[in-house]
Amino acid sequence: MSLNFTTIFRGILLICFLIGAGFVIQNSDLSSVLSREWVDTNVRYTGIYGLFLFLLLSIFLVTLGFPRQIISFFGGYAFGFIGGFYLALLSMVVGCIICFTVARAIGRDVVVKKFPSSIKKADSFLKHNTFMIALIIRLLPVGNNFATNLAAGISSAKPLPFFLGSTLGYIPQVIIFALLGSGITIEPEFRITLSVILFILSTILGLYLWRIYQKDK
């Protein structure tokens, strides 16, 4: 009886989490929050207050699936390339950990009971070579960050390899978009060209690693 109640309670929590995430994304005017005007007013040149405001907001948004490329761009714009890179990357890693942990804590038991075939698919994909799979998924410019974190959380993937693979996989795109937003003192045409080249290289690397993974299976 208590086990059934616990399962139902966890299911309700998971549903509430997903509904809440969807509600915030759909009904919040996020475009007005992370805009140049908002960043100029509330983040840039406001010292430690602006830094923590940007970091906390970025963690919140990334946890709910907000595009990490936009976070990186405005990180570069507000704090320069180096500062923006580290703040954006930190927010992505923390957001990944939060989403994974929530899914693991309140979602796995429910999904195992209700959708055993789905959890088997997630396990077969993520349980083995978790680090490599996470790295590949983050490198490729496809997929949904929020869905990936949830899928990993409800699977039996080990947390540390998933977090490490995700962190390394995030880096190329964080570099690209923080560079684009930074206004670093190089010609804009060169900055954009360099970003495009890095983006293509990260995609090629992801596809290459995926082919190696497929051959080794």
Any overview of this molecule?
The protein is mainly alpha-helical and 217 residues long. The chain has one domain (2-216). 85% of the residues lie in helices and 0% in strands. The protein has helices at residues 2-27, 30-33, 36-42, 47-63, 68-106, 108-114, 116-126, 130-139, 145-154, 159-182, 188-216. Helix 10 (159-182) runs antiparallel to helix 11. The radius of gyration is 19 Å and the shape is flat.
Major sheet attributes: none
Mean pLDDT rating: 77
- Proportion of residues in β-strands: under 5%
- Gyration radius, in Å: 19 Å
Number of helical regions: 11
Unreliable spans are none
**Roughly what percent helix?**
over 70%
Write a compact overview of the structure shown.
The protein has 217 residues and is mainly alpha-helical. The protein has helices at residues 2-27, 30-33, 36-42, 47-63, 68-106, 108-114, 116-126, 130-139, 145-154, 159-182, 188-216. It has one domain.
What are its keywords?
single chain, 217 residues, mainly alpha, 85% helix, 0% strand
How is the topology of this model organized?
Blueprint: H1 2-27, H2 30-33, H3 36-42, H4 47-63, H5 68-106, H6 108-114, H7 116-126, H8 130-139, H9 145-154, H10 159-182, H11 188-216
Helix pairs in contact: 1-5, 4-5, 5-9, 5-10, 6-7, 8-10, 8-11, 10-11
